[in-house]
Design goal:
about 260 residues; alpha/beta; nine-stranded parallel beta sheet; 4 helices; about 25% strand; elongated
């Protein structure tokens, strides 16, 4: 049975699972699907197009599946999909998609800290931590297990690799490859995220291989030459292939 405050507004067409707690002054619009065991503290707004899993916490002031801040948006039906067991803190805003991709996606087991923004058509993976007041412009992709500190500004269409650590206050308009620390001004490669990788169970041997992969790629005048060398040196290592493919598929260029 759901616990819905008498001071909350839930549209009769919204679909709610079981054991949800809806606090006072929350608003759930039509065309919303909410799973089980979610908790909405006071003053949370879930707009049309939201598709939310189970076990999530939404703190006061969060506004989910908002109208995209994109002048090309013409009212088309789009979605905002959120997975399971996320902690979405105070005043977080997540826009729904546009005709470009049709949906904004936030995976599972993420912590989105106070006042951060996820724009239209972004795709955030699983297990990430995103700091206070960080802002992602439209169509940003973030792979699993990224740690992005506070007040980071990310340009539209950027791709952030998995297992990264991005230092607070960074602003960037290029892609950030996996397994590294990015920081300083302008934002650049600052070494391997050794502590983060060890915490995630990466062996010292594998960390050394990742470090050597970046040493080779960044030492070459042409990234293509570095990729060819590391693939020949470390065949069949998925982490190396992930790095190489990231560079090859980058559309905005990769920080150096």
């Amino acid at each position: 049975m759901n616990q819905i405050s008498p001071m909350a507004v839930v549209h009769p067409e919204a679909k709610l699972g079981d054991n949800n707690i809806i606090g006072p002054f929350c608003v759930i619009d039509k065309d919303v699907v909410l799973g089980d065991n979610n908790k909405l503290y006071n003053s949370v707004t879930i707009h049309a197009g939201a598709r939310i899993g189970s076990g999530n916490e939404f703190f006061p002031g969060a506004s989910i599946s908002t109208k995209p801040q994109d002048l090309k948006y013409k009212g088309e039906d789009t979605l905002c999909e959120i997975g399971d067991n996320n902690s979405i803190r105070e005043n977080v805003t997540i826009s729904r998609g546009t005709a470009s991709r049709g949906k904004t996606v936030v995976g599972s087991n993420n912590l989105l800290m106070e006042n951060m923004h996820v724009a239209h058509d972004c795709v955030i993976g699983n297990g990430s931590i995103i700091g206070n007041s960080t802002k992602f412009a439209g169509e940003v992709e973030i792979d699993d297990n990224a740690i992005i500190s506070a007040t980071v500004l990310c340009h539209q269409f950027c791709h952030i690799g998995g297992y990264v650590m991005i230092q607070g206050g960074c602003r960037f308009s290029q892609d950030i490859p996996p397994y590294i620390i990015a920081g300083k001004e302008p934002t650049r490669y600052c070494g391997i995220n050794i502590i983060g990788l060890r915490r995630r169970g990466f062996s010292n041997e594998l960390i050394d291989i990742i470090h050597d992969t970046y040493r080779i790629i960044y030492s070459k005048g042409l990234v293509k030459e570095g990729i060819e060398e590391v693939r020949a040196k470390y065949p069949d290592i998925k982490e190396v292939e992930y790095i190489c493919s990231f560079f090859e598929n980058s559309k905005r260029g990769v920080i150096r």
